[in-house]
Amino acid sequence: MMYALIDTDGGLHIKAGAWRSEVGPEGPGRVRLQPDPDGHEWAGWVNDDGHRLGLPRNIVGGLILNTLGAPPSPYPGPVVITGWGPLPHTEVRALSVVEADVVRAIHDHARRAPVGEAAGWADDARAIAEYMRIAPTPGLTVLAGADALARLRGRS
Question: In the chain, N or C terminus with fewer CB closer than 10 Å?
Answer without folding.
Answer: C
